[in-house]
Write a structure and sequence with these properties.
By secondary structure, the protein is of the alpha+beta class. Helix content is 60%, strand content 14%. A hairpin with a 3-residue loop joins β4 and β5.
Length: 425
């Protein structure tokens, strides 16, 4: 630590001596003037160039990179002016050295490239962290102080038993492990997208294999990253015990939903595209997640139902074995109607309705003699329950109304006879 302090003191002395030289003042002034010129020019040119760039018919990812360059036009011009300045200084050998201007050129160019590449990352926070971290490392390399910075970061730390944790180790862990996890997630997403296009696997099996692949890749990446940095995995024994206690007390529902999701995918009781009823919720399954199932109802609402509910509660899967669903429509006609003719007309009306499966012929049965009508039930089949049940019932009832009206069959309404008696009668 004393050697490090002495080295820092030496750097400070050299820096003060370097800054006091006339050539350094000239170079610093040139850098400031170049940046001001680049900033003013970018204010005038950037809006016009960006408007024209957005008119280009290219791939979205390429357009994102072009727009990123446009929004950093001041840095592009600043780098160009610095390059011209270095060329002129070396040509005319004035003011004797170009170290400061050349260093500014290299650092500015590195910042331009790194910031543009990081802009392609959708998360702005992660992109900024990567940009700042990458540029800081380049700056240390350009200035030739990587070893000193490593010593300084390694000195800031503490020991946990026989294991020592320092800022340098944490930084390496974040960078190395973060890169491996990013590769694992990206590769897992790529494999998952390929699996979802496979027609040889069932939808549930595709989701299950995709999730297992992602989990395995993330675990392998984490283990490889920590082993590569020389971290003894036995130090996580206490941490794993704490996690187990946390799961036992506070994460029961999370673990339960996760395990329930795996069970659902394995037994294939539900799958994306199925039409289900759970309690008062009727809709079709859009997606299966690790913690919940996304169910979209007919009114456009999306319910995120915990996986545990599909294990512990009664679920009606309208399309579990196949998509054929039988619906019943009860109705009544007047007593002076011919029931045989009513049955024929009801079947004909149902067959004419859209969505009614004609291969499974509808049937109509007389079910009882009511107080005011002959009671019937019309049964028919549909193969698209996802498109709704109430609407097709309404369409069939309207078809019955039109057919009965054309053939003189009346649909009665209740009659009540009221007898009024005088007192003493």
């Amino acid at each position: 630590m004393e050697a490090l302090i002495a080295r820092l003191t030496e750097w400070g002395t050299l820096a003060i001596a370097y800054v006091s030289e006339p050539s350094t003042v000239y170079q610093f002034g040139m850098i400031v003037v170049f940046y001001v010129i680049a900033l003013v020019l970018s204010w005038r040119i950037e809006p016009k160039l960006e408007a024209r760039a957005r008119l280009l018919k290219v791939d979205k990812s390429l357009l994102r990179v072009v727009i990123a360059f446009m929004r950093r036009l001041e840095w592009v011009m600043f780098v160009a002016l610095l390059a011209v300045g270095v060329f002129l200084m070396r040509t005319f050998e004035w003011p004797g050295t170009d170290y400061l201007v050349f260093t500014a050129l290299v650092l500015s160019l590195a910042w331009l490239v790194i910031s543009v590449l990081s802009h392609t990352i959708r998360s702005r926070a992660i992109g900024r962290i990567i940009a700042i971290g990458g540029w800081s490392y380049v700056a240390l390399v350009v200035l030739g102080v990587t070893e000193e910075a490593a010593v300084l970061l390694d000195a800031a730390g503490f020991a946990v038993g026989k294991f020592r944790i320092s800022m340098l180790l944490v930084l390496k862990l974040v960078v190395f492990l973060g890169a491996l996890l990013w590769i694992a997630v990206s590769f897992g997403t790529f494999l998952d997208s390929r699996l979802q296009r496979s027609e040889e696997l069932t939808p549930s099996l595709r989701v299950l294999i995709g999730k297992i692949l992602k989990i395995v890749l993330i675990i392998v990446a984490a283990l490889v990253g920590m082993s590569g940095l020389g971290i003894d995995l036995t130090v996580f024994t206490v941490l794993s015990g704490a996690i187990g206690v946390g799961i036992g007390f506070g994460l029961q529902k999370v673990v339960s939903n996760f395990i329930s999701g795996i069970i659902i995918l394995m037994d294939q009781s539900i799958k994306p595209g199925d039409t289900i009823t759970l309690g008062d919720t009727f809709g079709w399954i859009r997606e299966l997640r690790a913690r919940f199932v996304s169910v979209v109802t007919r009114d456009g609402r999306e319910y995120l139902i915990p996986n545990e509910d599909f294990i512990t509660r009664e679920v009606v899967n309208w399309s579990f074995s196949d998509d054929l669903v039988r619906l019943d429509v009860p109705f009544g006609v007047a007593y002076d109607s011919d029931p045989h003719r009513v049955t024929e007309l009801a079947i004909e009306a149902a067959i004419k309705c859209p969505r009614v499966v004609s291969s499974n012929k509808p049937v109509c049965w007389l079910t009882g003699f009511g107080d005011s009508s002959l009671d019937f039930v019309l049964r028919f089949w549909i193969d698209d329950p996802r498109n709704g049940l109430t609407n097709i019932r309404g369409i069939v009832l309207l078809a019955l109304w039109d057919t009965f009206k054309e053939n003189g069959i009346k649909i009665p309404y209740p009659h009540r006879e009221v007898i009024m008696r005088q007192p003493g009668q």
